[in-house]
Amino acid sequence: MSKNLTKRAEDYSKWYNELVVKADLAENSAVRGCMVIKPYGYAIWEKMQAELDKKFKETGHSNAYFPLFVPKSMFEAEEKNAEGFAKECAIVTHYRLKNDPDRKGKLMVDPNAKLEEELIVRPTSEAIIWSTYKNWIQSYRDLPLLINQWANVVRWEMRTRLFLRTAEFLWQEGHTAHATEAEAIAESVQMMNVYADFAENFMAIPVVKGIKSESERFAGAVETYCIEALMQDGKALQAGTSHFLGQNFAKAFDVKFANAEGTQDYVWGTSWGVSTRLMGALVMTHSDDNGLVLPPNLAPIQVVIVPIYKSEEQFEAITKEVDQLVLALRKLNISVKFDNRTTHKPGFKFNEYELKGVPVRIAIGPNDLENGTYEVARRDTLTKEVVSKEGIEIYIQNLLETIQESMFSKALNYRNEHITKVDSFDEFKNLLDSKGGFFAAHWDGTAETEDKIKELTKATIRCIPLDSEKEQGYCMFSGKPSAGRVLFAKAY
Q: In whole numbers, what is the pLDDT of the chain averaged over residues?
């Protein structure tokens, strides 16, 4: 199986696009800007979904489902949110087609089937959900209301890229309502931490936790908490956001509750979400010129076993041995595949599983049966060794843990080496192109300066890190006083 991948150093964007397609993760569909997520890619998403869903339930959230369509007037109720998404909205105006009398077999919009009110195809669900919460919340006894939904959304992007930016994508969106401001802020911070824990411990992706600048904040939010990751090409990727909505949506949809004293007050809200964009982050953080490199915690197949034989008798003997090994590994909750296809040679299989990023490959031939050994190969380091079959299942279990930790450490080292302090705009511009990564720089806090830096360099403020120390200084661009450093980067 030939990979023929473009080298990352030659064209990172082309390498990414080729890898997503050749590794069978996804492909472009017949619908402009939309993708087909293929079974192998969807299996990774399912593992992400399962782990996140477990974390949501552990923190007290329940799943529900809300309509795909939002009446236009309802969507407009929270002004900032409507303005923020207006340019990305897809709109349903009619409900029926009819035959075109001038073009046999063709259909046309029936002008008599115009909707009384146009429907927005949800780009996000705050409007439809908060209009529903009005009926669900009357008293402080109904709070907190902790709801999540797994859904698809549509944002009519003009320039698309598989997983990173598509007109339709899959995600989860949490929407919660609280009796106090402090509770809602605590919820926003908690969910940011849930995302960070998932990214680091399951995706092996180190992230920076922070808050967005006002211009980068979610439309309609008072504060946006975020996790930012760094890809191998030195560009940042927003991996998850959690928004403190204040009482903005409660006021827009008149969601009030009677508090313990019997007086009416507006509830406090949050929303938070991650999407299939995480698939892009997974590919770009770890993969190499040979294909995908998947962390064991998210790999659909953690171990693949490839038989090497010449005769039917050898194949039967190997199969008998492998059946026992598969049972032993599955008892340890390790996902394992025995590739016993007779239509492909071992070399083809080795290439295929290397391209697909399977963390561990075991090869077993007649000599291995005779010697009581197996050949074990690691995908992350492309190294292999001969291991005794005695206790092999524990060896593999420990190896998978080692690979997971090693992948995180490698990504963390890269990230740390690419956080650079800069004090002058000239230094910033030079290093932005030559080194890339995050740049910790002073900023005067104004949107004007932020916009000008973006206009001149295409770099944005990714976040104001939560763990950053207060440090008096001067803005690298305007020279005005600054209370601390923020992280700039070019981003996806």
A: 97
